Amino acid sequence: MKVVKQKKVDDCYESSNTVDFLLSAPITKDFVEHLGKLGKLLLFEEFDIPYFKVIVKGEYTIKGAFGRKTIRILLPEDVENYPLDPLVQHIESFKIVR
Amino acid sequence: MIYLNNAATSFPKPKEVQDAVMASFSGPLVHASRTGLEREDDDIVYLCRTRLADLFNIEDPLQIVFTSGSTEALNLAIKGLPLEGGNVVITAIEHNSVIRPLKTLEKEGKITVTVVECDRNGYVYPEQIAEAIRDDTRAVVVNHCSNVTGAVLNIAEISKIAHSAGAYFIVDASQSAGAIPIDCKNWDIDLLAFTGHKSLFGIQGIGGLYIKKGIEPKPLKVGGTGILSELLLQPEGMPIHYEAGTPNTPGIISLYAGVQFLLQTGLDKIIEHKKKLYQILFDELGDNPDIEIYSPTEHTSYSNFCFNVKGMVPEEVGYVLEASFDIWVRTGLHCAPLLLPYLGVEPWGTVRASHSYFTTEEEIYKFIDAVRKITLIPKRK
User: Fold this and answer.
1) Residue A69: closest CA among chain B residues belongs to which residue?
2) Which of B47, B192, B248, B332 is the most buried if burial means most Cβ atoms within 10 Å?
3) d(CA B71, CA B152)
4) Cβ contact (<8 Å) for A12 and B320?
5) Nearest CA to CA, how far is A86 from chain B (Å)?
6) Domains along chain B with CATH numbers
């Protein structure tokens, strides 16, 4: 899995702390479980499109939905100051099985 | 996709609007006064003013000035009127398009601003405005309909209060134009700002300002008008005095088609449909202990369902609605920062689901089902 693009989310509030990652492939359950290794995984499979949250205590929260190609990361501080490289490396260590 | 963000911009537009805009690109959009009589669109700019005048009960369509939207219209009203050295009364439900021009003038030491409180649904009682008026109040600026909760203010009553104090009465009709009745003549409105791309079903980039006869704000811009080119100063006549530059003809065409659709469909029928959907939302979610609703059951446009899921930030509710249910709403402050403390939703704001005439009951039930499922997400303590 590759992080193709990063985009700071501009909205009414908490925007400076929010970033979206565009991924190179749709999100699968295996990928969500890979993200889940970072912290506590919450999965809501009963939703029309299953939704997940990964809470990395004291760090950040990742959220997204199966089949989408975007995940959202809520950071504890401004995107500009937060080191995202370790998260990108973890995402890109996931091997897509075709 | 289920689109419930019509308070931001309406979607879909009526087919008539789509067709009119597409057709506008089939020929050159030259100035109406320079084309032959056989061109059907020659008078579209004037016709649009007449339809708007019908909708807002304005006697002279030429008192309607086209702008890029409500923000420009409100800037023209606020910056153009002689307010310097005086006080301006606004309400807690104002949008930043009112707050920011006034706060800028206040920062420059030109005016003072008084903010009148609202209740927990965004309603402002006229008597509260009366109490806020001072000897030096030069203008009262009010939002006809809250873009957050959908609360609708009593414009006729507030108009009397403003005028009895000798103040200008400016109405921000961004949310109400095309959504609920507006009566400029009988409500004695001095200036009415509206946008075209919400409930009037036009495209983005078109709006306007009604200016009552006898009121003459300074123009925001001067320049080419396509006529009276020998004059070295801006022509004085209405509406050209305020319309320097090439008009947004595709926007005006879309607005004309949108207003025509409204008038032909009937505002009553449109309101009735939205009221039915609004009632379903309250019936199904009103007594849900996990949901806090901020929209009122009376004094309402029936267009905005403003709520929070208890224990969840609105951003997450909006994100899940979109990512997992393909339902588009708006979350956050909605550009109305003064309102937050009155709703008790600082600092995160609210979720706003805003339906339109084109929203179906089936879509509303899908939204209700999605919100119920979202309440199952573990909450913040």
Assistant:
1) B323
2) B192
3) 20
4) no
5) 24
6) 2-9+266-371 (3.90.1150.10), 15-265 (3.40.640.10)
Q: Do B324 and A46 touch (CB under 8 A)?
A: no
Q: Kindly report the backbone phi and psi dihedral angles of residue B152, in degrees, each rounded to the nearest multiple of 5, phi listed first.
A: -110, 125
Note the pLDDT tens digit of each residue in B93-103. Answer: 999 999 999 99
**By residue range, what is the domain housing residue A31?**
3-92
Residue A97 lies in a domain: no
Contact A14 B377 (CB under 8 A): no
Instruction: Pick B324's closest partner by Cβ from A14, A18, A48.
Output: A48
Q: What is the pTM of this model?
A: 0.94
B201 phi, psi to nearest 5 deg? 70, 15
- Enter the ipTM: 0.92
pLDDT value at residue B40: 52
Give one word for B326, left, alpha or beta, with left for phi > 0 and alpha for psi -120 to 50: left
How far is Cα A24 from Cα A5, in angstroms, rounded to an integer? 9
The total domain count for chain A is 1
- Report whether pLDDT(B365) > 70: yes
Helix axes B267-285, B249-265, angle to 10 degrees: 80
Per residue in B118-131, pLDDT (tens digit) is 999 999 999 999 99
A83 belongs to a structural domain: yes
CA distance from start to end of chain A:
12
Whether residues A48 and B323 touch (CB distance < 8 A) is answered with no
Residues of chain A found within 8 Å of residue B334, distances taken between Cβ atoms:
12
Name the B residues in 316-355 with CB < 8 Å from any A CB. 316, 319-320, 323-326, 331-335, 347-349
Do A44 and B331 count as a contact with CB atoms less than 8 A apart?
A: no
Q: In what side-by-side order are the strands of the sheet with B87-91?
A: B64-67, B207-211, B191-195, B168-172, B137-143, B87-91, B112-116
B146, B122 Cβ separation under 8 angstroms: yes
Q: pLDDT digits over B44-57, tens only?
A: 999 999 999 999 99
CB within 8 Å: A49 and B331: no
Check: CB of residue B160 under 8 Å from CB of residue B36: no
DSSP B15-66: HHHHHHHHHHTTS----GGGS-TT-TTTTHHHHHHHHHHHHHT-S-GGGEEE
